[in-house]
Structure formats: structure tokens, C-alpha cells
Amino acid sequence: MAAIERAGEKTFVYEKLHGGVGDISVQRYFEGAHPWQMDVEIWELPVGGAEGSHRHDDSEPEYGAMSELYLVIEGSGLMSLDGQSVELRPGDAALAAPGVDHDLVNTGSVPLRVLVITDPEILSR
Fold first, then answer.
1. Cβ–Cβ under 8 Å, residues 6 and 27
2. Which of 12, 77, 85, 115 sits between 20 and 30 A of 6, alpha carbons compared?
3. Confidence band (pLDDT; 50, 70, 90) for 1?
4. Widest CA span of the chain, in angstroms?
5. What does pLDDT average to over the chain?
6. 3-class SS at 12?
7. How far apart are the first and last CA of the chain?
8. What sign does the CA torsion over 65, 38, 118, 61 have?
9. Rounded CA gap, 63 and 66, in Å?
């Protein structure tokens, strides 16, 4: 199978995701069109926007336990992982494993663009 998706074709908005600040624009690529369980997305957080502190574990009914990889493409942000915060810039990445409290905040003066790859925990692994 070969396929192309163009920027903006499958964009949606998370409004105050996980109780965060502002709306996060999301482009999800090839949803359901590949054999992997993961989602591949580009997120854009507005200036001052925040994902909202949360964790993904077996107690969460909507997402369940999953890992999230965040790779900064443009802008800068503050990533909190289990109470430790680190500034991220283009090319930096953070990994939130299942059960890790995490949050991403746009601390820059331009929208924060991030590649986000989510991978659900599969019992058969």
C-alpha cells in the first residue's frame, strides 16, 4: 500500500485536553490505514497553551495504558514528567511511559509544534 496525506487534511482540535489551557490543533496521520497500534500526530499548542497534567494507565477508560513520545519540531516548551520539569527545544524529545504523570506547556513566543507518537500497551506483547 502506498498513500499520501497532506497537511491539514485530517486536522481536529482538542479543547482543553486533560484540563489544560487553550485548544491544541492536531493532525493525525493515516489513522486506521496501517497495521500498527500507534497514532502519529503533529500537535500545535498556542502560546501559553498546556496539555494538562495526566497519566495513561489501566485505570483510564478512554485511552488505557500507553506510552507517548513527544518530539519538538518548532518552538519551545516545558515538559513535566513525574514532577521533574525540563525545557524542550526543536529536536528535543521526551517519553512518557504508562503511569507517568506528564504535561507539556508552550513557554515560547510562537506556537509549539510537536510530533506525538502514542503506543498503547498491548497485553500480548
1. no
2. 77
3. low
4. 44
5. 88
6. strand
7. 26
8. negative
9. 7
Q: Is 17 helix (H, G, I), strand (E, B) or coil?
A: helix
Residue 69 has which C-alpha cell?
513520545
Query: pTM (2 decimals)?
Result: 0.84
In the three-class reduction of DSSP (H, G, I as helix; E, B as strand; rest coil), residue 19 is classed as helix
Q: What is the pLDDT of residue 124?
A: 36
Model pLDDT for residues 66-80, shown as the tens digit of each residue: 889 999 999 999 999
Look up residue 115 and give its amino acid: L
CB 5 within 8 A of CB 30: yes
Say how many residues make up the chain.
125
Amino acid letter, 48:
G
Residue at 60: amino acid letter: E
